[in-house]
Amino acid sequence: MRRFYMAAALLAALTLPAWADSSKVLIDSAHNISLGAWKATSAEWGGGGAKWSVELKTLHGGRQEGVQVIEVDSGAVRFTIVPTRGFEVWRADVGGLRLGWDSPVKEIVHPALIDLSDNGGRGWVNGFGGWMVRAGIASFGEPGPDGNTILTQHGRIDYIPAHFASVRYEAGPVPRLVIRGIVDDTRVFGSQLRLTSEVSVPIGKADITFDDAITNLSDVPQEMQVLYHINFGTPLMGKGAEFVAPVKEVAPINVASAANGLKDWNRYDGPHMANYAAQVFLLKLASDAKGDTAAMLKSPDGTQAALLKFNTRGLPVMSLWKNETSPKGGYVTGLEPGTSYPNHRSVERNQGRVPMLKGGESWRIHLTATGLTSKAQVDEAAAMIRKLAPEQPVIRTAPPAP
User: Fold this and answer.
1) In terms of Cα–Cα distance, which of 84, 28, 79 is closest to 60?
2) How many domains does the structure of the chain reveal?
């Protein structure tokens, strides 16, 4: 009889799949859960064709004391999610290609040390250093009064800790890792909005996908705004680098951005050591029949790039921020798809670019970032973008009226 049970157990083991889906809750305030440290690897949870790992860490020292990060390695891309900071991605690396920049802010600053009202409502920049940073979700853009509300620059979401975070390994048919986070931007007599983010990466692939939903938690209509502040420095940014997108229309946000009549607005010639003013260009992009579009930052030699693909139903407009200042002064460019442009919320509302959600309604965003590490990949992406592009974009040399 004992041999029978042993044989049956062996047969069952042989007929089961080698790997199954696995998951782990890392943070859950509703159940008083916050793991200080944890790790899973392909050896423990599954293969997927490449070695991979996910690790939760708690940082110590300086202004980062107590900040929690989730470090993900898919076998092709490595990146760091920060649950303590609105589920932003601090940095990423694809085969040695850095996606990120050299901010003067070196630490991942804990939200408790940030005063968003500092410097006339511009305290958001006091911890700014991430690769993919969301602005919003009740408002973003210029600070200042909006009716009875005083808005701070780029909203609050990046400085609100996630109250839930989990990791899931999906065995197939395309093995992938999914890191899920929930962040609530709520207050009495104010916004009641929730960001639910799923950041996923296929095992062995160089894609990072963001599937986000912003939900109105109240029972009355509420405005919402979100912008994906995706930031790059060297090696992608440099003299001769180029922003490539299927642009239908481009306009400067202000007089400083209108310099030189927008000549070479999508090319880079810095860094500049002195007397440089940052520029922002407001873009409308062409898309396919499904609303899908793309934008790319191409390195000076054309052999590397970062490609963004997103749907214009969730992110209908895009901004390009160029800060070609000195190398240590915050030398960076931002590719910024969003629901609106980074003007004051009242300006965007007047232009019909501030979505209104019904009670319980959600606004959904789908965005994929890919690191391209060969000229062939860059050329293929450029050809795809050209197919979407109109023959000649409309170039407006003056800032649009509020």
Assistant:
1) 84
2) 1
Asked, for residue 6, whether it belongs to a domain, the answer is no
CATH number for the domain spanning 29: value is: 2.70.98.10
> DSSP string covering 318-348, please?
EEEEEE---TTTT-EEEEEEESS-SS-HHHH
Q: Is the overall model pTM greater than 0.85, yes or no? A: yes
Residue 328 tokens, joined = 């240590």
Task: Compute the CA torsion angle 24, 26, 32, 36 (nearest 10 deg).
Answer: 130
**pLDDT tens for each residue of 342-365:** 999 999 999 999 999 999 999 999
Of 37, 48, 122, 124, nearest to 85 by C-alpha is 124
For the record, the structure tokens of 253 come out as 């946000």
| b/e code 207-235 from CB counts within 10 Å (16+ = b) | bbbbbbebbbeeeeebbbbbbbbbbbbbe
Cβ-Cβ contacts under 8 Å for 9 (sequence gap 6 or more): none
pLDDT tens string 137-146 = 999 999 999 9
Residue 251 lies in a domain: yes
CA–CA separation, 367 vs 384, rounded Å? 17
Question: Exposed, middle or buried, 276 (CB in 10 Å: 0-12/13-18/19+)?
Answer: middle
Q: How far apart are CA 266 and CA 279, in angstroms?
A: 11
Q: Tally Cβ neighbours within 10 Å of residue 168.
A: 18
d(CA 213, CA 231): 22
Decide: 203 and 50 in contact? Cβ < 8 Å: yes
Tokens of 52: 């991979």
Q: Which domain holds residue 153?
A: 19-395
Q: b/e per residue, 304-328, with b = 16+ CB within 10 A?
A: bbbbbbbbbebbbbbbbbbbbbeee
Whether 320 is covered by a domain: the verdict is yes
Q: Are 48 and 175 in contact (CB under 8 A)?
A: yes
Residues of the chain with pLDDT under 70: 1-19, 48
CB 99 within 8 A of CB 237: no
Query: Within a domain: residue 401?
Result: no
Return the structure tokens found at 68: 């929690």
Angstrom distance (rounded) from CA 49 to CA 389: 37
Q: How far apart are the first and last CA of the chain?
A: 84
Residues comprising the chain, all counted: 402
Structure tokens at 360: 């319980």
Instruction: Give CA torsion, residues 245, 246, 249, 255, to 10 deg.
Output: 10
